[in-house]
Amino acid sequence: MKIKGYIDINKSREEVVKYFADPKYLGEYQDGFIKKELISGEPGRPGAKSEIFYKYGKKDMVLTETIVNNQLPESFESSYYHKQMDNTMKCEFVKLGGEKTRYNYEFEYTRINWIMPKLIAILFPSMYTKPAEKWMVQFKEFVEKQ
Question: Looking at residue 139, what is its pLDDT?
Answer without folding.
Answer: 97
